């Protein structure tokens, strides 16, 4: 059997990925399927860090439009990511896979504080580490948190799991003629304002040479095939494509 191409990854899931087709905030069947994929990666010897957004419950930026203070809205969004992290933790634990939730906010009754060295130690011991509460600061998205945590833990690859097959020039669900990018640089993504991640997240990855793959999380087995070396989705790197 071939060896995995990546020994340590950071997987970024949107909160919407947990909703499923029925629109409920957290779909247990979807959470279970994602937990099974993560557990399978661990059984292959891959160290897995996980960042989950909170958009299925509340988005701090969207709440501002309703009159909520931006800082307060962002903290509410961070707490939403904690709820999702706890849901993922329970599903992964039920499969017999050790897992820890580490929060950028102090919530010691239910999860650990994020400490870089401790997170790396958990990974080295074969535990999944779920990073919750974003960066712990308002005005920063969970995309930025994913980029930051991937760099801090020394991940070999950041994977952004979305609802489409990769990076497009426009939303392919609304624009069928949108161009698909198989490979591109961070500078190209920034210059063309492609809807991959926010600018802060892209610059962090670019400046620290963190490669990123964007793929469809609803395609069963896609992550496993990717870590085994299959060329799936869109690859974003620093420098020339």
What Rg, in angstroms, do the CA atoms define? 17 Å
Which fold name fills CATH's third level, the topology? Carbamate kinase
* Spatial order of the strands forming the largest sheet: 4-3-5-2-1-6-10-11-9
CATH superfamily name? Acetylglutamate kinase-like
The helix/strand class is alpha/beta
Task: Give the overall form.
Answer: globular
Q: Approximately what portion of the residues adopt beta-strand conformation?
A: 15-25%
Give the distance, in angstroms, between the N- and C-terminal Cα atoms.
30 Å
Number of strands: 11
Q: SSE string, helix = H, strand = E?
A: EHEHHEEHEHEEEEHHEHE
For this structure, what is the CATH class? Alpha Beta
**The number of domains:** 1
Report the helical percentage.
25-40%
Number of helices: 8
Instruction: Report mean pLDDT, rounded to a whole number.
Output: 92
Query: Do you know the CATH architecture?
Result: 3-Layer(aba) Sandwich
Low-confidence stretches: none
Profile the largest sheet: 9 strands, mixed
Oligomer: single chain
Primary descriptors:
single chain; 241 residues; alpha/beta; 9-stranded mixed sheet; 8 helices; globular
